[in-house]
From TrEMBL, chains A, B:
<dbReference type="InterPro" id="IPR000551">
    <property type="entry name" value="MerR-type_HTH_dom"/>
</dbReference>
<dbReference type="InterPro" id="IPR009061">
    <property type="entry name" value="DNA-bd_dom_put_sf"/>
</dbReference>
<feature type="domain" description="HTH merR-type">
    <location>
        <begin position="1"/>
        <end position="68"/>
    </location>
</feature>
<keyword id="KW-0238">DNA-binding</keyword>
<dbReference type="GO" id="GO:0003700">
    <property type="term" value="F:DNA-binding transcription factor activity"/>
</dbReference>
<dbReference type="InterPro" id="IPR047057">
    <property type="entry name" value="MerR_fam"/>
</dbReference>
<dbReference type="GO" id="GO:0003677">
    <property type="term" value="F:DNA binding"/>
</dbReference>
<protein>
    <submittedName>
        <fullName>DNA-binding transcriptional MerR regulator</fullName>
    </submittedName>
</protein>
<dbReference type="Pfam" id="PF13411">
    <property type="entry name" value="MerR_1"/>
</dbReference>
Amino acid sequence: MRIGEVADRTGVANRMLRYYEEQELLTPGRHRNGYRDYTESDVRRVETIRDLSASGVPTRFIKIVLDRQADAGAWTSKCDAILADMVRCQIAELDSKISCLTTSREALRSFLDEATLERTVRASAG
Amino acid sequence: MRIGEVADRTGVANRMLRYYEEQELLTPGRHRNGYRDYTESDVRRVETIRDLSASGVPTRFIKIVLDRQADAGAWTSKCDAILADMVRCQIAELDSKISCLTTSREALRSFLDEATLERTVRASAG
DNA sequence: CTTGACCTTCACATCAATGTCAAGGTTTAG
DNA sequence: CTAAACCTTGACATTGATGTGAAGGTCAAG
């Protein structure tokens, strides 16, 4: 499929799809006329990139993970441990981010609830 | 406490602490000599900012969240509805962010699991 | 054949988050 | 008194992720 449809389906701007390609996170095929040609698998990949990127994971790192995913068999013993540690570290960071966001969310939520209650009370009292 | 200690304790660069202050996310006191003076509560605030920021939450938004947390009682009747909508909107954004992070976490997790399995198999086979 | 909606590349602009450096004040230790 | 290690403000540079626009190719519909 062409770039426009991918952009529509993933919510990732046209421009960014080219950018990700430039960063070698993505390698869509080409039609004879030069248009990029994305597969369903590409779309899934874009969604992953979109999410990781929005989570503050740097594209360099995304690339590494995605590359490893491609040839899951090609771990060279030497780098295995290092990469695994990196991933574990990122997961830990994500965990801490999630809990932080959740806390913030809860704070806003309870704030909103209190405020709504406040207004309700005021409304029924006035 | 002075800025250097805050930087050491939070891992947030000196420069960024000033930046956050400039963006009104933080308002440390001042010593007589002009040095910034941070409280323990400031440190906790910095940690929140650090995590939210690392999660890709823009500082503008962080400011709003933090502000709301601060003056939970200060709703003026006129703005109630508007403010409530804003907060609801922000909660929605946090929600989407959280699910995004969770998805990313799962992706990394399963990647790591597969890789580990792979190595285990290879190890016991070789 | 023309028009409009796509697509291409290339380049420049912007914005937020940072690094870095200069010039100078303060405090503490020797 | 001086040197080292802090701190201050201010300015400028960089980097990554984006927007935007120009100049032009492709294709389908009328």
